[in-house]
Amino acid sequence: MADDLDDVTDESSESSEALIAVHWREEGYYPPPASFVAQANASDPAIREQFTEDKYPDCFTAYADLLTWYKKWDTVLDTSNAPFWKWWVGGELNASYNCVDRHLETHPNKAALIFVPEPEGDAHQAITYRELYVRVNEFAAVLRELGLKAGDRITFHMPMVPELPVAMLAAARLGIIHSQVFAGFSGTAAGHRIADSGSTVLVTIDGYYRSGDLLDHKVKADEAVEAAAKEGQQVDKVLVFRRYPGQYSAKTPMVEGRDVFVDDLLAAHKGEIVEPVALKATDPLFLMYTSGTTGRPKGCQHSIGGYLSYVAGTSKYYQDIHPDDTYWCMADIGWITGHSYIVYGPLALGTTSVIYEGTPNYPDAGRPWRIARQLGVNIFHTSPTAIRMLRKVGPDEPAKYDFHFKHMTTVGEPIEPEVWRWYYDNVGKDEAVIVDTWWQTETGGFLGSTLPAIDSAKPGSCGPAALGIYPVILDEDSNEVPAGSGKAGNICIRNPWPGVFQTIWGQPDRFVSTYYAKYNKDPKSTDWRDWPYFAGDGATQAADGYFRILGRVDDVINVAGHRLGTKELESAALTVNEVAEAAAVPVVDDVRGRMVEMYIALKPGFDASPEIEAKVKAAIETDIGKIARPKNIWIVPDMPKTRSGKIMRRVIAATSNFTDTGDITTLANPEVVEKIREQVQTAK
Ligand code: WT7
After folding, report:
1. Distance 677 CA to ligand 1 centre (A)
2. How far is CA 675 from the centre of its chain?
3. Which of 96, 297, 604, 621 is the most exposed place for a label (fewest CB within 10 A)?
4. ipTM metric
5. Which amino acid residue places its CA nearest to atom 5 of ligand 1?
6. 336 CB less than 6 Å from ligand 1?
C-alpha cells in the first residue's frame, strides 16, 4: 500500500492545475426561463428535502425505483466492508433489459439511437427500440457462442458508431464486464488495458471518419494484441465490425484464425433471442480506465444496480430527460460521460440519444447546429473545449440555423464566464438553461450541478451539491474550509452515493489509498462518516453554497476534458534513447483549457535537435495517443531540482505559464531556473 500512497502525497504535485487556476470574479445569476420550469422533471424546491442527511441513504430509492428489478433489494447500503460500499444488496436486475426490453411495451417504434455519420452526404440512421432489441440480442448470441459469460471481461476499442452501444448492451445482457477504450488512444494503450482487465476478446471496427479522413482503425487492433501479449495476455479473437457492411475499409489484413468479421458471425444468429441474465445489483457492469498519478491506468469498476440507478436519476433530474426528447451529448462513448449520459442514462429513461461520428467543426463550425436543426435536438451536452472552439471559429454560426434547445450541459473542465455567456446567448438563444456538471470517471454521475428548474446558474461555478451528495472542502490538516471564506482546499464527498465506483480492478489497496486514506478517521470503521471520498480537485465554495472547481491537485493534467497522468507522459518520453529526464506540466490554453508541455534533459553527449523532439512526440503518440501530444517540447540544459534530486515541476510550470516561480533558494541548482525561463519565455 505504501507505494501507492504517492497517488496523493507526492510532493511533485506542486505543479498541479489547481495552482495555475485562473481566479474569476463572482458572477451574477441566470434564473431558468419560465417555459423550462413549466415542463421540468424537478421544479418543486421541496425535492431537496427528500434528500437531506436525515433521509440518507434511503432517499436514493427514488432513483432505484426508476429501474425494473427482477428482485428488490434487502439493504439499501451495506458499509460492512468500508470503503467498498455496496448498494441495493440482495437486489437483482439487468442493465440491458432496463435500457432496451422494457421500452418495447411503451414505444417500440421510437428511435433509441440516431447515428449521424461524419460525411454530410451520408444519411443518418435511426435505430428504433425494437431494432436495438434485435441487434443487441444477435450480438449477445455471438458473444455467448464465443463462450463468454457473466464475470468475464471484454475490451472494445470502438469509435462513435451505434455498434458500440449495441456491443455494450449485449455484454451487459450476459453480465460480461465491458471495458471500452477511447478510439483515439493508441493500439499500445488499448493493449495495456486489455492486459490489465484480462480480456481474451477485442471488439473493433475496420475504420471510421474523423475530420474528413476514413481512418484505418484495424491497424490499432494488431498493435493492441501485440502489446497485450508482451504483458502476458493472449487475445484469442478480434471481432471486426465493418464501417460499411459488406465492404472492408482498412488497409490492414485480417489475421487468419484470430480476426473475424462481425457481420459474418451474425449471419448464423439472425433473430436469435438471448434472455437477459438476472444479475446481482452489486455485480460489475463495466470498467473505465482513467489516469492517476502513478504510471498504470486505473480500471474503475462500476456496479450494475448502483451505477444504473444513479445515472437514471441524474439524467432525469439534471439532464431533464423525458422520453419524447431528442437528446444529443456530443462527448465520446469512450469516456465516462458517454457511458453515463449517451448510453445508460438516456436509454434507461427511454429517450432518443444522438450519436455523432465526427468532429464538431467538420466540415465547418456550423455542423453541430445543422444536426440540431435537422434532428430537432432539444437537449445538448458538450464540453468547454468544444464550446471554446466553436466560439472561436464560428461565433456567428448558431444564429444561422433554426434550432431550439431547452437545456444545455457543459462538463469536464472549468468554463470561463465569457465562454459560458457566449454559449448561453448564442447557442441557448436565451431560451435554454445551462448546467455545469462536476464529476469524474470514478463517480459514475454528477456530484455538483444546479437543479436546472430550481436553481439559478452562475457562470464559472458548477453550483451546489447534487441531490444526496454532501461535500466538504478540507485543508491538508483535515480542517473544514468554510463557505464564503474565499479559501481553496480539497473537495471531498462525506458520504457514499449509488454511482460511486466499487474498486480499482485488481488493485483494491490502491483504491483505498488513493481515494479514502487521506482523510480516513479510522481504518477499521464501518461508519461511512469516517471515510470522506477524496476527489483530487481543488475547489472553493461561495457564501451561496455554489462550488467552483479549480482543477486537479494531483499529477493529472486535464487536456480538453481528458485526463492524462504526468507519469504516463514522462515514461513515454523516457523510452527515447537520448532522453535522461522528462517532466510534464500543465499550461493554460485558449481552446483546450489546459495542455501539456514537456521538459526534457538529454543524456551526456547529445545535443538538442528537432529530431529528438520529433522522437519524443512520436513516443507519446505511440504509448498514449494523439490526444496527449504536447503543445511544446523544451529541451533544457538541466532540470531544476531539490537537494534530494527531485525535479521541481512547480518551478517549470511557472515558467511555462509566466507565473511566479516562488522561492527557489532551496534548490540544488537555482541558476538553471533563469536559463530555462529565458529559453522558454523568449521562444513563446
Ligand atoms: C476531472 C474528471 C466529468 C466527466 C468527464 C471527465 C474535471 C469535471 C468539471 C466541471 C470543472 C471539471 C475535474 C475532475 N472536471 N467536470 N464541471 N468543472 N472541472 O471525467 O476524465 O474523470 O475527469 O475533470 O478536475 O476531477 P474525468
Report:
1. 31
2. 38
3. 604
4. 0.98
5. 412
6. yes
